Structure formats: structure tokens, C-alpha cells
Amino acid sequence: MTPRTNLLPFLTTAALGTLGTIVGTAWYVTTRVSPQHPRHYSDDYTFTPWELGVPYESIQLRSADGLALSGWWMPYPGATEVVIGSHGHSGRKDDLLGIGTSVWRAGFNVLLFDYRGRGNSEPWPHTLISREVDDLRAAVAYAQTRVAGAKIGVVGFSMGAAVAIMAAAQEPAIAALSVDSSFTSVADVVAHQVRRTMGLMPPAPIIHAADEMLVRRHGYRFTQARPIDAMALIGARPILIIHGANDSTVPVAQAQRLFAAADAPKQLWVVEGVEHCGGYFADRPAYCERVTRFFEESLRSEM
Q1: pLDDT tens, 165-220?
Q2: Residues 250 and 279 in one domain
Q3: Of 90, 108, 142, 205, which one's alpha carbon is 20 to 30 angstroms from that of 4?
Q4: Pick from 162, 170, 128, 136: which is nearest to 243 by CA?
Q5: Measured between alpha carbons, how far is 241 from 81 in angstroms, rounded to an integer?
């Protein structure tokens, strides 16, 4: 028996082990990207604008494919501007009560809503940007029915920030964007996490396998979700890009790439010493003041 023959069982076992690692990791990625959480009665036990002394209406949006999306409309008498909140992948509308009520107190109408499958919206497997872009466009359409000729801004966090960029590329009614902790593409986020947690394992096979699983399980490919490509379609609409310098989920380099791809007017605010979506919590008053000032300059000034 030759040495080469002796190596065959080892090589076969190693190849099968590698394949199993790729398939198992890819399956895990798909469950993280597109989870489906059953509703629980405690989902209704949340703060609302009422606790913060802000008048509001509980509303229902209708997505393009017919799902009911739950929302809060906070009207400000006489205001012609609307700021829409876009929460993160596993979040819901009450996550944005801090920034939402702060913007309202500055004189803006505010719309917060739950993406499909989250909060009080109709159950649906979560996607990552795919269907959420249509949900945000439904929120824009609703705002236009409430305020004729509305000037619309979007404040988004993490996935919600990426959704805002993708939606603005398709929806000219979005006039200004404040995006916190967005990624350049979903594939870039997955690749970063594979390198971070699996060392020398190359991310490309895992990304490809997860993409194929997602299209079969949920009918979409996450590799098509590329906010970095959408930046060129936004044009000269103002954008404020916010990112934590110590973000381990989405490296700050991705924010810098988004900023480089954006047209002016644009701002990049890197918050030192904070993690993913940590800018708000590092200094709430300063964060709200800066975002509010951005919308005042972007939506109220004659451009």
C-alpha cells in the first residue's frame, strides 16, 4: 500500500468535515438572517408615545403584498415634514421612541412602524432588506396621505439604516437620510463574522451555500442586498452616516466606504469608543440634537 493510498481516508474525512462545516454554518446563517418568531402576549407590553407625553394614533399600514404593518403616527400641528423611523433586524418600533419623540418635540410629524414579522405587524419570516424595502416604501406612501406635499426624512439603525438607503434609491419622496450602523452589503457582514469567529475558514463558500439555502427557503438572495451600490442612485439628497468606532458587528470601514460612495451633501459622524448602534446610548442629548439639527437643515431649508 503506497503512502498516497494511506492518505485517501484522511483526505476524504477532511473534505467531508469541511463540507459539513460549510453546510452547517450556512444553515446557521440562514436562521439568523431569516428567523420567524412566534408572537407572545408579552409583545404587547411595551412603552408607547403616551408614556413620554406625546400624542399619537395607532395606525395600520398595508404592504405592497398585503401584509398589515402596525405603526404609531405622532402628528405635529402645522408641520409639513415627516420623519419615519426604521428599526433594526430584530427590533420593533418602540426601540425608536427616544429619537422619535425627540424629533417630534423639534416640530416634526413622526411615523414609527414595525417591519413584517416584528412587533405587532403580521407574522412573516424575517428577511434582511429584501421585503423590508417595500415595507418602508409603504410607510412613505402613508405619510404622503397624512401630509400633502410632505418633505420626508428617514432615521434608521443597523438593518433599518441599510433598508433606508435601498429604499431611497427607489423612492424619490425620501428627501434626507440619517443612517446609523449600516452595512455595505449583507455578504460583507457575513464575511466579517465568518473571519471573526472561524479564523482561516474562507467566507466565500459559506456565503454561496447560505445564499442558495435562502432562495430555496424564503425566495430571496441576501447577496442582492447591497446598500453600497444604492448610494449612487440617491444623488444629491442629504445623508448623515453615523457609526461606532468599535463596532464588531459592522466594522466602521463599511461606514467609510458608504460615505465615499455618497454624493454631497453628506456627513460622517464616527462615535469613538462605542459598539454597534451605540452612538445614541453614549450621549442621548447630543445624539438627538445632532440628528434633529440634520433634519432641520435638510427638510426645512430651501434647497
Answers
A1: 999 999 999 999 999 999 999 888 878 877 777 665 677 777 777 777 777 666 66
A2: yes
A3: 205
A4: 162
A5: 20
Query: Are 127 and 171 contained in the same domain?
Result: yes
Cell output for 75 = 402628528
Instruction: Check residue 52 and report its DSSP letter.
Output: G
Residue among 111, 112, 53 nearest 82 (CA): 111
Same domain for 205 and 270, yes or no, is no
What's the rounded Cα separation, in Å, for the pair 239 and 241? 6
Cβ distance 182 to 156 under 8 Å? yes
Q: Using the 3D structure, point to which of 202, 223, 244 is the last residue of a domain.
A: 223
* Owning domain of residue 21: 1-33+190-223
55, 156: one domain: yes
- Output the CA–CA distances (angstroms, integers) from residue 294 to 81, 110, 240, 301, in the order listed: 13, 15, 7, 11
- Are residues 233 and 123 located together in one domain of the fold? yes
Judge whether 81 and 104 are in contact, CB under 8 Å. Answer: no
DSSP string, 105-163: HTT-EEEEEPPTTSTTSPP----SSTTHHHHHHHHHHHHHHHSTT-EEEEEEETHHHHH
Based on its alpha-carbon atoms, the radius of gyration of the chain, rounded to whole angstroms, reads 21
